[in-house]
């Protein structure tokens, strides 16, 4: 799993909450992809014996690459219940291999054709937005460091400091996540770009340029700027200035595919053995709406590796291409950085540029090692069992580098620290509940931080583990401190670094995704360390009270004893209030579960959400009523009942506190 999967510690609510994020438009981003250095292996933890032996230095041999892929990919697909996959490999301006596996349409048994079958690369689409932006920069029509509001007819952000295109391209805009209306099911869904970009402009939760926080919304704004400056829809601009010049015949940003391409679109599946789903529509196509075959993506990789030119067609100047691949300013000096739109990382010691994409049913990744002039693209058309689509793309890349590139030695990033320092620093990190810089803070999705916080765990041997960070074997990675506040993966190259202010850790990140998000301390007043157990206890007490009340009714009926007359109205108010509080919790559980269905969180209607917010307000009022009952309780009530009145009142207050602090009572419709 990656750093944001956060499913290592269970609980029904956490599973539902994690499902929400996976089902959201945010799933376009690499944050829901398994990092090459942090992917899960199949359940067996083994790879087939047919995988090729390590290659010698030199040009890739197509036959050996094919043997490697034919041994690995079908095995992973069978283990993970995946419908289809495509892999393309390029080197030195030529296609080494294009391989299709499984089916693009399981019911019709249509095999994947790497040349023509259209997959959904998801957030890899963003690379085409950044390419478009840089083309317009070349023409002097855009300035990477100007306030983006210069180019817009809306104000972004709604408050805070101005944002620049450079910050958007490096995912340091500081904007919170925006999910509603981005990805919906069916090309004819009425949601459109203006719904997504203009109905609600996200707030700034961090000052621009300070910390990375991957943003679909900011990318959507960049694609809109391309439209406004060029005078063309983004779909048309990309077609005219990128897809056609590069000969990407089987590729399109049209969400309603042209008739000649429609038969080639792969169907999407949760499980290869299950049903197919309607096509995913991206209302801001540049964010994640690309359709492309493996062959088309090979041409894009070759053009990028060849300094912006392919077969005599140049899409950007060589110096501009180089600028795009150059790492930008570091947030933490030892960790991978963003380039202008590409994620920089280390794979087996090789300086890698990549971008991933995860849609509702498609998992994809594109990697390049410019120094070797090698590129690999992998995509699946199904989620698979335990997110096997994500595991497959990570396995293919990691195994490919191991098998076909010279092994480079692992070097320590520092001399190490003494045992006392390691323990002190690990304890300082463990005291904190961390949440991602990439999050939604203005809606009920804040619940994700409550039920899925990230914790750092000191180990007896002096190392640490971090929730969600796992290796190819499915086990949590161990990190050892190699210099003050810098950890290195045990037996690996990945680094984890902490920013410290006044002796306190205030930010950390690590691994290949350090360029696009990190973790900040959660405020103590809503820390899961106390709030989550308090909520569980409160709900347990309210349920117990409800059960005792129901049981009391039957007991009195059995013995034919009337309830005491004094305080009867208060008891009834108390019972009604408990019922309202518990009813609102049950309603929210049902609502969140419905939102976790494919496309649910992006295309929800206003009515149900307004109803849920109204129920939350009723629960808050019911908590106030419980306190009022506890204050007004008759002296004639037995001591246990008077004490119980305060117990259920406190439980109600805790539930109300959660409703308010987690935005369940928000009167807005943003998401």
Question: Looking at the structure, what is the overall shape?
Answer: globular
Low-confidence stretches: 1-57
Relative helix content: 25-40%
Number of domains: 3
Q: How many strands appear in the DSSP assignment?
A: 23
Q: In the CATH scheme, what's the topology name of the largest domain?
A: Beta-lactamase
The helix tally amounts to: 17
Main β-sheet description: 7 strands, antiparallel
* Beta fraction: 15-25%
What is the CATH domain class of the largest domain? Alpha Beta
Which structural class matches the secondary elements? alpha+beta
Main attributes?
4-stranded antiparallel sheet; 3 domains; alpha+beta; single chain; Beta-lactamase; 23 strands; 671 residues
Please tell me about this protein's structure:
With 671 residues, this protein is an alpha+beta fold. It folds into three domains: 52-107 and 118-404, 3-Layer(aba) Sandwich (Beta-lactamase); 419-522; 526-661, no CATH class. Helix content is 37%, strand content 15%. It has helices at 12-23, 62-80, 126-138, 165-169, 193-198, 216-230, 234-243, 285-288, 294-305, 318-324, 388-404, 419-430, 447-451, 528-559, 568-595, 606-632, 639-661; strands at residues 84-91, 94-105, 110-111, 183-185, 251-252, 268-269, 276-277, 280-282, 291-292, 309-310, 313-314, 343-347, 350-358, 363-369, 374-380, 434-436, 456-458, 464-466, 479-483, 486-489, 495-501, 504-510, 519-521. It has a seven-stranded antiparallel sheet, sandwiched between helices. It has a four-stranded antiparallel sheet with strand order 19-20-21-22, covered by helices on one side. Strands 4-8 form a two-stranded antiparallel ribbon. Strand 10 and strand 11 (313-314) form a beta hairpin. The longest helix is centred in the last third of the chain and has 32 residues, at 528-559. The chain is globular. The two termini are 25 Å apart. Residues 1-57 have low confidence and may be disordered.
